[in-house]
Fold each of these.
Amino acid sequence: MDALILQVLNGLDKGGAYALIALGLTLIFGTLGVVNFAHGALFMLGAFCSVSFAKLLTISERVRDESVTFFEAYKEVPYLEIWWGETGKSIVDWAVPLSLLLTVPVMLLVGVAMERGLIRFFYKRSHAEQILVTFGLAIVLQEIVKSFFGANPIPLAAPAALSGSADIGSLVGLHGISYPLWRMIYFVFSLGVIGAVFAFLQLTTFGMVVRAGMADRETVGLLGINIGRRFTVVFGIAAVVAGLAGSMYTPILSPNYHLGMDFLVLSFVVVVVGGMGSLGGAVVAGFLLGILQSFASMTQVKAIIPGIDQIIIYLVAVVILLALPRGLMGRRGVMEA
Amino acid sequence: MSTVTARPGPKRELLTLAIFALAILTMPIWLAPIGAGYPDILQKFAIFGIFAIGFNILFGFAGYLSFGHAAFLGAGSYAAVWAFKLFSLNAVFAIVFAIAVAGIFSLVIGYVSLRRSGIYFSILTLAFAQMSYNLAYSVLTPITNGETGLQLSGGDPRVLDRALFVTTSRLQPPDLFGIALQGWSGFYFCAVLLVIAFYVSMRIRHSAFGLTLLAIKSNQRRMGFTGFSAKPYLLTAFVISGMYAGLAGALLATTDPLAGADRMQWTASGEVVLMTILGGVGTLLGPVIGAALIKYLEQIFSSFNEALLHRTFDFLPGAADDVVTAIFAPFVGEGWQLTLGLMFMAIVIFLPGGIMEGVRRIAGASRRQRTGSSAAAREVGRRIPAE
């Protein structure tokens, strides 16, 4: 029983990341009708926003290390620590959560620039061409990141207070299930972001117009609403969501330049399993596949079906696509073929 | 986009074939001035040309974008190396075996994937290719030798060689009835197969089967109304293009008897898509040109480094040399992928029809100048709306 709960927990953080990326993909597909193969790259850019932010905070000065008395030793001390002492130290420690301050505006800018600069020319082109041009863009983005940050993964630590394990089990009356705290935080964070996106779409006038545009773009346009501008904003939001997902994921998985490609393929599978164009489906499928993947990597399961952990997601996608042509929660008439 | 024309006469076909064969076989001569006159790279042109021609049969003729074709290339490589190990070092045997294995493999994957079309088809093929790639790295290690890659070894049984009393030394590369397939003979072997592959694809394009594929591409639903079931035609096209990929994989293994799982990775699938697009989707010649161009540029760009750039721009005055070098440095050597990505985007944005479309436009423009406005009107009517 404990093992089962642990596996479910294991799947939640990864599932959260899948769900956030898939949510963005679905938003873009549902509003603009564009298949965005560069969405994984946006996730990766988010992660590197955190890396840059952490680097920025730890711009250091070489000072004499007083604790070493036998010989002259030097250490790097961040300026923040020199200026503000303990406060500065804790700011450096909280670099990853604080980096969201950088991630949000940067990703919004990137998203809007991408839509205005490239994607809008591809609304009327075929899906194959959209896939190809965004695939090219993804290569370009990841190569740019590679040339700045190198090819090796860059580790980032969660704040010291949040990097331990917590006895999650005691909350639900089971003891002895301890689990890394940051992963739980990531899960809650992803739920929060998903909630915010849904609230934005359901509760605001802007969101209502967007939903109307998703249902019937032409009619909304005829009503005198500039739907194009709203959709640009939606693309920006999708980019921000992917960036946030990547930014907060850095303590769990050290980012490197091809992080985006790894997640992209899986996220597409998630979107298809959830049902093209269904936001709820993307979220449900994201968590479902994350949990399934963690179950498949249990040693007991691997003993029965060797290698299942490597292919489970793709296998599920194949089965779902063949059995349920619209995915789990796909709407009728959206991309049925 | 592609105009469906009546089948050209056999004379015309033979003429095309003769010109193509002549151009391919004399590549060592006319490509020497641009620094591609050596067998290693020409061999790559030919092998990836075959791969792209095969891919074009599915994507260009039938309009189905597969994102998992590298799986068949990888399967062909593995099959060929196994044929070398188990049966014989003769390349013919390995190639036949690899084509058969890739054919069966693509029959299975095609049968399942072709139940859907459009983007779903792309994702299904991508899923299958990723599955093959992951399995090749993990569970199938006894067959694929995991990360190390499958290699020949002295202890291989080579039953056929032994039965026919062909003596093979411990670590000898594959051959063709005793002719070593290294260097120039290796290139000519691949080149002859490329010419055959081109001829087969031309015959397919001009056959009733090829026209059916084109019709499926232009409107599958209408094909259904006329009583055609598209599925068997599509599956045939899928298997044929899978076999082409298997042939290419076998040739890769023949010229360098080592098969690794990275040949199956989806970036490799993306590369063949780019080759086809760059040359011209649906054209006969385009994929070959695209494949050669990409492999050529890859060679050129990745061999450059900063020192070499400095030497190239030496003729510029001091500071300008540094500036120009700094501008070009991110795009060469390790940064070749960046150039590839930019090229990919530029082609899709500005020239969706690829190089062949560009040639046609230039030819059309010069003809228009001569014959007046009637041709111009036709050209405008055919142009794709920009937005």
Amino acid sequence: MRRIFAWAVLLFLMAPMLAVVPLSFSGSEVLRFPPEGFSWRWYVAFFASDRWLLASRNSLIVASAVAVVATLLGTLAALGLHLARFRGRGLILALLAMPIVTPSIVTAAAVFFAFSVVGLTGSLVGLVLAHTVIAVPFVVIAVLASVQGFDPVLLRAAAGLGASPAAAFRRVMLPLIAPGVATGAVFAFATSFDEFIITLFIAGPGQFTLPRQMYASVREFLDPTICAAAVLLFLCSLVLLLLSEAARGRR
Amino acid sequence: MARRHNRLAALLLAPLLLLLCGSFFIPVARILVTAVADPELSEALPRTAALLRGWDGQGPPPEPVFVAIGEELAAALRDRRIGRVAQRLNFEQSGMRSLLLRTARAGVTSRAALVALDARWGAPETWTLLRGAAGPATGLYLLRALDLVRSPDGAIQPVPKDDALYRTLFLRTLWIALVVTAICVVLAYPVAAVLAGLPPRWSRIGMLLVLVPFWTSVLVRTTAWFVLLQREGPLNAALVALGLVDQPVQLIGTRFAVVLAMVHVLLPFAILPAYSVMKRIDPALMRAAASLGAPGWWRFLAIHLPLSLPGVAAGAAFVFLLSAGYFITPALLGGPQDQMVASFIAFFMNQTVNWGMASALACLLLAMAGAVLALARGLLPGVLSGRFRA
């Protein structure tokens, strides 16, 4: 009984996506269920649309940049936190986690307000900065989890054996934290790739990302192209999930 | 050695802290300031503002105030700087915009001429209002966000019934967040318990069914519901086929649609921490209790529930936190009666460009989130790492 209930809830979690897949292959203009006929036309329409292509490009550029910046800064910060012996270490960790627990509408309003003063709204750079803020805590937490138990004495031992600091870091520390860094990077990419509210505020039409374009399309005109876009984005998420599982498996 | 470590640690932390200061902490702090700042009058009419701050508020203000406001209004109109101060005063008292514009266009600069142009320039309330707006700070927006106003004599009182809006809004936001959280907990608990008890292979498959939607973009999932809940959509088709309804019903724009989709989006946040805690409950405890003769419900209440509670509570806190600030789902699936605080913040930022009001609402939302965090203190780190462990 309990098991049936649990599997029913799991089915409920998967159902919406599963229902959208057949609709994206519909042969007709209207989103009627069950779909009539089978065609690739909505996928063709997606790849023929300048707006969807621009949004895909923007999403890939921003998410990649966020993954690089957030992973770099987040990894450095996590190593710093690991080394730190001063009081206030807990406070810094709490500060770094703040963007996760702050309601995203508040972050979005604050960032919009501040960026409009310095002219960072309507630019991809502004998007990357804002997305990095909400993505970086995940990197810090993931890397911190992987350095737990790493003894700095190992670094000194490497130095004692004649390794330069850079070599000691690369040969001793990096292999240990690599899975955490990889997990953080995937999370950072996914966080930016999904982000919507900040983008809604600070992106102009030239900076629309995929979620932003999807929102615009739902509000303006509903046609099965949206289902095709949803399925494509869904596939992207699956790839990201597999990547994160692979990174976790290496731990 | 520890000193050198600390210096290196500071060096490693510095870049990220700098970035967060510039793109998060300072912007959020500015929001807090903007909620109580009142710069419009003193920016557009600096001399008038200075004179009003020096005025004791008794009787009509002295003649120089009339001269100053007349001259400065005309100048502000010429330089197109009058819009913001007009909007600011009009927000507090409707009709002020037209009064300012009329006076600016007339270009009159004496007490007699101003009063002759519009009797309101002779009324003490007008000047009390202007004097209140001349200061560097105002409680106007925060009070309004609680459906309160300051009357001309300075007392704080509720706004007229027809203008009351925000208390209902906050109560509605809290209510929707509570309902969504409660449903999520009720659904998540058995799922997590069953998954934690399954043999590894099946539990992996089950977890995948949680993780796949968890990783799917929120907008994709909300859009999927938008499609599903259409009049011609699958859900209506199923309802009609089952004979539950005669003809398709309107689902988009209802509270039901909002709660349904929010539960769907947030449920994994409740399942994952509960699962990671339950996975660590030693099954030997339950077996021991059983061998000592404790019946099933007693084993559950005495062992499983208390041991799993931290994970469940952490998940519930996170779901509540996320749903209280929700924007997308009500915006796409709800009607006007389902909009939450976030929608109003967006409205004031984008539509009416009333940053004071947007900031005041954001402050109250932030305070609400802070209260939840304080209640759930110590639980959240568990949730966050649960995202990786699960």
